[in-house]
Design brief:
The complex is a heterodimer. Chain A is mostly helical. Chain A has eight helices and two strands. Chain A has a two-stranded antiparallel ribbon. In chain A, α1 runs parallel beside α3 and α1 packs antiparallel against α4. Chain B is globular and about 75 Å long. Classes of the chains: A mainly alpha, B mainly alpha.
């Protein structure tokens, strides 16, 4: 167990440093150094490393029998995704991913997992169901999706010079994408109110109408 | 940038009903706190909700129905959207009326219900007018998120809690799959703007070789994935699994709303998405062709046949009325999908007419379930035996709704079904006519099957002796609503010209 924890901590530290350093360098407008590692450039090698990490994390979420491991796998998957955003020159998105998903959402999930009663029972917490159906779906979809992913000429944009994106994102939110932006805040507000409605104390059955709950 | 801001400001003029719903929803939540100790809190809150909906209706009526893009092409304001907006307002209004009289939502909680209900109506407004992948996704999420909460409103009720949780899980999976499909569309076409899709797809389909094959396949995959979000809202196979459990577990007034409002919104979205971006413009004969030969009409046609068959066959075995109506609503989604699969003006009109009539007849059917459940505390079909002796009005009204749901003349359901079938048969003489003919046959067989289980309820109500003899005494408001719904079904079953003309006028959709 301690060894596992060490690995996790090292991995986490690596990603945070990576995102932090790259974010900082991008803010300065620097270009990545071109170091060659055999057939792969450094960037390529890093990309595959983080992609593998994302994939391994996602697989852990789906396959692990222990829900705590699933939650930690989610951590790896989210951090990997955050690093992949850096490769897309999306610095703001990468940092937001770190702050919101890893700093906020994931910690909340871990709390929820650990505070839930009887969560250690695998049968309750993380049973694998419908293996046959899931397997069939996998066999049916994976070849199609892989073929599509590899053979399709995707519409690509050649990234411009690395530059901070925050200003553009802010402008885009308040001009062209104003309505979806406001709509997102409305969705969040409605969800918040809904969460309060669901979570609050249940009324007693025969309480009179005018009572304060 | 100045231009973008200017467009946003100018767009507010075409966005007034939505603004009223937004602020009305928030105002209701505040009013809920203000009226905390008021004696007539229930009536006042319902009145406030009705006022908000009424105000939105007035502004909607005052609004021009000319096709204009709003907010830099995020949504469209056109006659098509306006038609569906009226359906949503009516669904919201009738649900408020039903909830105000019932006790499904306890008085201390009813204010939140109204506030959140208005938020769902707003979400449906946006679903009907969204012309951008981002607004499509956001509006679906707004409707879904709030629906999860409203379905699980009664926490002490295990069934409601289970229903709500199932709804959340299915909903998240469906919207995740939809997002994945949208990412494909964006990756292929390089734009979020649904109206700009058609020319880009036509351009893409010109590529040949392995890349061309992959592109076509990617487009099909993307369309199938995106339709999972829509299919989940309208409860079509294979995204229907949540439907029976949620319909049974949710408080009945909300079930009624769910079965007509979000379903119509899903169809509005599907019509705009498929006819607007994956089909060419309609020709002089009122028929369009799918862009680049993407076989989505065939996919929708198969889904339609499977959906109605599964819904109807499963409904036969149900004894809980809410579950039965849930499967029946799946079957009706199947019928309505026929209109989408025909890819013609007539089919589009059929969907619109059907959703309008379905609103009345299905709300009416659920209202009878509410009336009987309030009197007997049961939703089982066995407690409907001899209903005609215990409460003639409810029994007769239910009979009318069920015959109308079957699609028998002279009830309004016949008008709706006639247009859907007519659209399919119109296609049967053209290319791929055999398949359309087969679809029409499947639809007709399904109608016969549905008659069987609807007639089972009718037989129980009219021919069987009641188990208990005490009379059901529904509230006056319910009686008035039942009467009005029945009258509407009968009137529009004979005199359908106004509906047809209105839908005819509303078929103008903003195109790219």
């Amino acid at each position: 167990m301690p060894r596992k924890i060490v690995i996790w901590v090292v991995l986490a530290a690596l990603v945070v440093t990576f995102v932090g350093v790259l974010g900082a360098r991008m803010a300065e407008g620097a270009v990545l150094p071109e170091i060659i590692l055999g057939p792969l450039g450094l960037t390529d090698a890093l990309f595959y490393l983080f992609a593998a990490m994302t994939f391994a994390g996602a697989a852990t979420v789906a396959l692990s029998k222990n829900i705590l491991h699933s939650a930690l796998g989610l951590l790896a998957a989210l951090m990997g995704t955050g690093s992949l955003y850096v490769f897309l020159s999306a610095d703001f998105l990468a940092v937001t991913q770190l702050l919101v998903y890893i700093g906020g959402v994931l910690v909340l999930i871990l709390f929820a997992v650990m505070l839930t009663n009887r969560i250690t029972e695998v049968k309750i917490s993380n049973a694998s169901l419908g293996l046959v159906g899931g397997g069939a779906l996998l066999v049916a979809t994976v070849p199609v999706l892989v073929f599509v992913a590899i053979a399709t000429p995707w519409a690509t944009i050649v990234p411009a010079e690395l530059a901070p994106t925050t200003r553009e994102i802010g402008n885009a939110f308040l001009t062209r994408w104003l309505l979806p932006f406001e709509l997102a805040s409305l969705v969040l507000l409605a969800t918040l109110i809904g969460a309060v409605v669901i979570a609050r104390k249940e009324l007693k059955q025969d309480e009179p109408d005018t009572s304060v709950s | 940038m100045e231009q973008l801001i200017g467009n946003n400001l100018a767009s507010v003029a075409g966005f007034r009903p939505e603004l009223v719903l937004t602020f009305g929803s928030i105002a209701l939540l505040v009013l809920d706190l203000v009226l905390r100790r008021s004696r007539s809190r229930r009536a006042l809150l319902a009145g406030a909700a009705v006022i908000v909906l009424g105000l939105a209706a007035v502004l909607l009526a005052a609004q021009s129905t000319a096709s204009t893009p709003l907010f830099n092409g995020m949504i469209a304001s056109d006659a098509f959207a306006t038609f569906f907006k009226w359906i949503f307002l009516a669904a919201g209004f009738l649900t408020v009326l039903i909830v105000a009289q019932g006790d499904d939502y306890p008085s201390p909680r009813v204010g939140e219900f109204y506030g959140l209900l208005l938020a769902v109506v707003l979400g449906m407004f946006l679903m009907a007018s969204a012309t951008n992948l981002l607004t499509i996704y956001m509006s679906i999420e707004l409707v879904s998120m709030v629906s999860y909460v409203l379905a699980g409103f009664r926490k002490s009720d295990r069934k409601a809690a289970e229903a709500s949780l199932k709804y959340v899980i299915y909903g998240s999976v469906a919207s995740g799959v939809m997002l994945f499909g949208m990412s494909y569309l964006y990756g292929l076409l390089g734009t979020f703007d649904v109206l700009a899709f058609a020319p880009k797809i036509a351009e893409l389909s010109a590529t040949t070789g392995a890349a061309g094959a992959a592109t076509k396949l990617a487009l099909v995959v993307a369309v199938v994935f995106v339709s999972s979000g829509v299919g989940y809202k309208i409860a079509s196979v294979p995204w229907h699994m949540w439907c029976p459990d949620v319909y049974e577990g949710a408080p009945t007034p909300f079930t009624a709303f769910l079965s007509v409002g979000p379903k119509a919104a899903g169809f509005a979205l599907a019509l705009r998405f498929f006819l607007g971006s994956f089909a060419g413009p309609m020709g002089a004969n009122g028929m369009a062709e799918s862009i680049a030969g993407i076989p989505w009409p065939a996919v929708i046609g198969v889904l339609s046949a499977v959906t109605m068959t599964l819904g109807n066959l499963t409904a036969i075995a149900q004894t809980n009325l809410k579950r039965l109506l849930a499967y029946s609503s799946i079957a009706h989604a199947g019928y309505t999908l026929m209109g989408l699969a025909t890819l013609s003006a007539l089919g589009m009109q059929g969907v619109m007419i059907y959703m309008l009539i379905y609103l009345v007849m299905n709300l009416g059917a659920f209202l009878v379930v509410i009336v009987v459940a309030e009197a007997t505390g049961s939703e089982s079909i066995f407690d409907y035996s001899g209903l005609v002796h215990r409460h003639p009005l409810a029994a007769i009204a239910f009979g009318i709704f069920l015959f109308s749901l079957t699609g028998l003349p002279p009830f309004a359901g016949f008008t709706g079904k006639w247009y859907l079938f007519y659209a399919v048969i119109e296609r049967a003489s053209g290319p791929a006519g055999f398949w359309y003919g087969a679809l029409a046959v499947v639809g007709a067989l399904n109608t016969a099957v549905s008659l069987y289980y609807y007639a089972r309820i009718i037989r129980a109500m009219f021919l069987e002796a009641p188990h208990v003899t005490d009379r059901v005494a529904p509230k006056l408001g319910y009686q008035l609503m039942l009467g009005a719904f029945s009258a509407a079904i009968l009137v529009f079953g004979i005199w359908w010209a106004p509906i047809v003309e209105w839908s005819q006028r509303s078929m103008v959709m903003l195109r790219g």
